[in-house]
From TrEMBL:
<feature type="binding site">
    <location>
        <position position="478"/>
    </location>
    <ligand>
        <name>[Ni-4Fe-4S] cluster</name>
    </ligand>
</feature>
<dbReference type="InterPro" id="IPR016099">
    <property type="entry name" value="Prismane-like_a/b-sand"/>
</dbReference>
<feature type="binding site">
    <location>
        <position position="301"/>
    </location>
    <ligand>
        <name>[Ni-4Fe-4S] cluster</name>
    </ligand>
</feature>
<dbReference type="InterPro" id="IPR016101">
    <property type="entry name" value="CO_DH_a-bundle"/>
</dbReference>
<dbReference type="GO" id="GO:0006091">
    <property type="term" value="P:generation of precursor metabolites and energy"/>
</dbReference>
<dbReference type="Pfam" id="PF03063">
    <property type="entry name" value="Prismane"/>
</dbReference>
<dbReference type="GO" id="GO:0050418">
    <property type="term" value="F:hydroxylamine reductase activity"/>
</dbReference>
<dbReference type="InterPro" id="IPR004137">
    <property type="entry name" value="HCP/CODH"/>
</dbReference>
<dbReference type="InterPro" id="IPR011254">
    <property type="entry name" value="Prismane-like_sf"/>
</dbReference>
<dbReference type="GO" id="GO:0051539">
    <property type="term" value="F:4 iron, 4 sulfur cluster binding"/>
</dbReference>
<feature type="binding site">
    <location>
        <position position="74"/>
    </location>
    <ligand>
        <name>[4Fe-4S] cluster 2</name>
    </ligand>
</feature>
<dbReference type="InterPro" id="IPR010047">
    <property type="entry name" value="CODH"/>
</dbReference>
<feature type="binding site">
    <location>
        <position position="60"/>
    </location>
    <ligand>
        <name>[4Fe-4S] cluster 2</name>
    </ligand>
</feature>
<keyword id="KW-0408">Iron</keyword>
<feature type="binding site">
    <location>
        <position position="55"/>
    </location>
    <ligand>
        <name>[4Fe-4S] cluster 2</name>
    </ligand>
</feature>
<feature type="binding site">
    <location>
        <position position="43"/>
    </location>
    <ligand>
        <name>[4Fe-4S] cluster 1</name>
    </ligand>
</feature>
<keyword id="KW-0004">4Fe-4S</keyword>
Length: 627
């Protein structure tokens, strides 16, 4: 396969990305960029959201130029079709986060029942906090019994019998009233997703406005429901993240150690692997095999979970997952679910790497399936680490390329609790810094990579601009990994910030870009925003805040963006969503929502221009607050 130097340059800004894109090509591998190119030109109807295959009278498409058909066989017009498609994207994203949350609730229950050996309650404090929030009485309950009771109360959140999710109580009063008025208060997590699938069936909700409003409710059931549960229960089971130093990029893979890479989203499996990798017997076995130790590294959000709580280094983000394999250094890659390209199993066959899938609901071509359940997780983790160690000797020297140089240093672990404690125990100093203008505002830069956008370019360009202008950046997911690779997540990166933010960072010893976790952990950002709004006696939409997803690709990102806007945060998308086939919907989402929710979307592929939009927004919000 021939790969031109300028192609490689155009595809990524990262050095390890370039080196291993060339290595992959030499090894004859096909990557996500090659497949993207092979798909050109992509379907214009689908790009605009104008195609529908919701029933078998179709598939149908609407001609955007007004010459061909303007209605599907059932009579649906462009507005209805675009709204239905967007609704189903939200449903899929919300379902993904929420099902991940449900899996954690299952483990919590099993821990309480004594059926999950190896797992435990790491944060009793958070368990008790959740109990009181959910109205679960603690009287005379053992921790185990409390875990079961909290798990039961959380299971109820998924159902259909409530008027509002329990965690809506965290939302500022003004915002709750807006949701009530619009009829978008989320009721049950599964209910909203299920209702979205119902509404978008042929012949149900054919009012594009009411479809989109339900889309917001569905997204809110993710943000203030499924994702929030995933984050809170992960904290209970695995601990509340605290600031931790680590490293990032492909150089975290070590030639002289057994490399086990953990990829996916749910920390249930990876935490057990983490424990097993510390087992003296298995470490001894590694030495016997000639390795200097067992090295764990993360990819995507499973990686972020381990990084946040255990300081495990990150090999890379979404678009680096295939390239990580091309090092020839990975002895085993364990995957759980979400964002795991189905191409990975076949890619790994070029090397000695063992590919193992672990979730009953996520199987992949050319991977061995070894199913984890709370009951067997501890034992299975030990077996797998042993097998990874045994695989170390099977590396194929001719195919190994050790990444040159050293990894980039980074800091992670900024849960809301950690941020508050870095501030000296309350959000007060942050509010003061915002009031004084030392910090102009705060922006969540989040989301994925997408081969449509130069890898990491969107994230790094936008974030650099923001911090230069004294805007504090908080991040999650693959965006956070991009920023880390660019060196923005060490306290010394304060030098790159404007004078006000620089001073605050120096005083607190923190980076100007704070890692708040995986994508479900976006709820941490909203928790913080809600706390700031409470402290100022105002609504989230009045604060100088914004969100951006410069390189998003996933349906989960659509759900996140929608709950961000519905929660009152202006959100700029880099990749255009499939809505441009309906001028009505574009206008609603980018203009009219402002009047309804105090926040709206913008679409801006150029990250420098996105930064300008956000800075303008922050200035306007500050002026309205009289700052
Ligand atoms: Ni978020 Fe995490 Fe990355 Fe995107 Fe995928 S790993 S959950 S969806 S690609 S940021
Ligand atoms: Fe066509 Fe309507 Fe069926 Fe969609 S739901 S495929 S627009 S007939």
């Amino acid at each position: 396969m021939l790969l031109k130097r300028e192609d490689v340059q155009a595809r990524t800004i990262t050095e390890d990305g370039r080196i291993f894109m060339e290595k992959a090509a030499r090894d004859g591998l096909e990557t996500v960029w090659d497949r993207y190119r092979a798909q050109q030109p992509q379907c214009g109807f689908c790009e605009l959201g104008l195609s529908c295959r919701n029933c078998s009278m179709g598939p149908c498409r609407i001609d955007p130029f007004g010459e061909g058909p303007q209605r599907g066989v059932c009579g649906a017009d462009a507005d209805i079709i675009v709204a239905r498609n967007l609704g189903r994207m939200i449903a899929a994203g919300s379902a993904s986060h929420s099902d991940h949350g449900r899996d954690l609730v299952e483990v919590l229950r099993k821990v309480g029942e004594g059926k999950a050996p190896g797992y435990g309650i790491r944060s009793e404090e958070k368990l008790r906090k959740l109990a009181s929030e959910l109205g679960v009485s603690e009287d005379g309950q053992s921790v185990e019994a409390l875990a079961v009771a909290v798990a039961e109360a959380l299971e109820e959140e998924f159902g259909t019998r409530k008027k509002a999710l329990a965690f809506v109580g965290r939302v500022p009063e003004k915002r709750r009233r807006i949701w009530e008025k619009l009829g978008i208060t989320p009721r049950g997590i599964d209910r909203e997703t299920s209702e979205m699938m119902h509404r978008t069936h042929m012949g149900v909700d054919n009012d594009w406005k009411s479809l989109l409003l339900h889309g917001l409710r569905n997204a809110l059931s993710d943000g203030w429901g499924g994702s929030l549960i995933a984050t809170e229960v992960s904290d209970i089971l695995f601990g509340i993240p605290q600031p931790v130093a680590s490293e990032v990029n492909l150089r975290v893979l070590k030639e002289d150690q057994v490399n086990i890479v953990l990829h996916g989203h749910n920390p249930i499996v990876s935490e057990m692997i983490f424990q097993a990798a510390q087992d003296p017997e298995l470490m001894g076995l590694a030495e016997e095999k000639g390795a200097r130790g067992i090295n764990l590294a993360g990819l995507c959000c499973t990686g972020n979970e381990l990084l946040m709580r255990r300081g495990i280094p990150m090999a890379g983000n979404h678009l680096m997952t295939e390239l990580a394999l091309s090092t020839g250094l990975i002895d085993m890659m364990l995957v759980d679910y979400q964002c795991i390209m189905p191409a990975l199993g076949e890619t790994a066959r070029c090397y000695h790497t063992r590919m193992v899938s672990t979730s009953d609901k996520a199987k992949y071509p050319f991977m061995e399936h070894r199913e984890f359940h709370p009951e067997n997780a501890r034992d299975l983790a030990r077996d797998l680490v042993r097998e990874a160690v045994e695989n170390f000797v099977r590396r194929i020297p001719a195919k190994v390329l050790s990444p040159p140089g050293a990894p980039v240093k980074m800091m992670a672990g900024f849960s809301v609790e950690a941020i508050v404690s870095a501030l000296g125990g309350s959000a007060g100093p942050l509010i003061d810094a915002i009031k004084s203008g030392a910090i102009q505002g705060a922006v969540g830069v989040v989301g994925c990579n997408n081969p449509k956008i130069r890898h990491d370019y969107g994230h790094v360009t936008l974030t650099t601009r923001l911090i230069e202008n004294d805007v504090l950046v908080v991040d999650t997911g693959c965006a956070a990994v991009a920023h880390a690779k660019a060196g923005l997540k060490v306290p010394e990166a304060a030098e790159k910030a404007g004078p006000g933010l620089r001073q605050v960072c120096r005083a607190l010893g923190i980076p100007p870009v704070l890692h708040m976790g995986s994508c479900v952990d976006n709820v941490r950002i909203f928790d913080l925003a809600a706390a700031l709004a409470h402290a100022l006696g105002t609504d989230i939409s009045d604060l100088p805040l914004a969100a951006a997803a410069p390189e998003w690709y996933s349906e989960k990102a659509v759900s996140i963006a929608c709950y961000a806007v519905a929660s009152g945060v202006y959100t700029v998308l880099g990749t255009p969503p499939p809505i441009f086939g309906s001028q009505n919907i574009v206008k609603l989402l980018t203009e009219d929502l402002e009047g309804l929710l105090g926040a709206s979307f913008a679409v801006e592929p150029d990250p420098a221009r996105a930064a300008d939009l956000i800075l303008e927004r922050i200035r306007a919000k500050r002026a309205a607050l009289g700052l």
